[in-house]
Amino acid sequence: MRTQVVAAATTAAVVYFGLNAVKFRKPIKMTFSVDDCVLCGIPRKEAEAFYSRVEKTFSKRLRPAETWTLLSTQVLKPSQPPQLHKMVFDAVYAGSDSPPIIWSPGKEVTNVRHMMKAKGHRSVEQFFDWARKSRSEFWLALAKRMDVRFSVPPSAGLDVSRGVPSVQYFPGAKLNIADSCFKANPNAPAIKYRSIFGRHIFYFSACLTVVLLSGKRRFYCHVDLQGS
């Protein structure tokens, strides 16, 4: 009887603290001021409104990663100086033991989510269970999702007839991996870089200079770099 009472009390405590975790979590401290926002390069009136929104978000008692996701998607703007973004990011994770996460994809934009939807799986666990039981089908579906282009399609996703240590992926397939890597508009920007401490912006076009090694063959792709 005593054991049952202790177990029930423990369960109740876990449920209570789980449901009220936000109440016991301390709000994130503001480590910068309105003046700091102005020094980052935004007008004072904008800085005052921005500071107020950040302070309100910090008071929600969310986890650092949740706080940053909310700030980076609803408060911060791409047009604002990189220094401002970094200052807020550092404030979010100041004093936190959790690893700083700059960006995490939304559920609807990940390849796993798209593959789950295509297979009709409602949970990650269900998807993983299918991937373990249908490994060959999984690898074929993955290659299709990643738009890997084969000149000769594979006969299967993998072949373990010689044992797991000698597994062969995509048996019988032939491809030039460059066909799968460089599919974008060759004149479109692939990388945009801006220094946090300067105003120099460099645009790397989608035509990148690389040497791809495949066996004894070499494939060369044009490199183009534009600076402004």
Structure description:
The structure is a single chain. The model is unreliable at 12-24 and 197-228 (pLDDT under 50). Strand 1 (158-159) and strand 2 (168-169) form a beta hairpin. This protein has helices at residues 2-19, 21-24, 34-39, 44-58, 64-74, 82-93, 111-119, 124-133, 135-145, 177-181; strands spanning 158-159, 168-169, 189-194, 201-205, 210-214, 217-221, 225-227. The protein is of the alpha+beta class. It is built from 10 helices and 7 strands. It has 3 domains: 2-93, no CATH class; 107-174, no CATH class; 180-227, no CATH class. The relative contact order is 0.07. It starts with a helix and ends with a strand. Helix 5 (64-74) runs antiparallel to helix 6 and helix 8 crosses helix 9 (135-145).
Could you spell the SSE succession in H and E letters? HHHHHHHHHEEHEEEEE
Low-confidence stretches: 12-24, 197-228
Number of strands: 7
How far is the first residue's CA from the last residue's CA? 77 Å
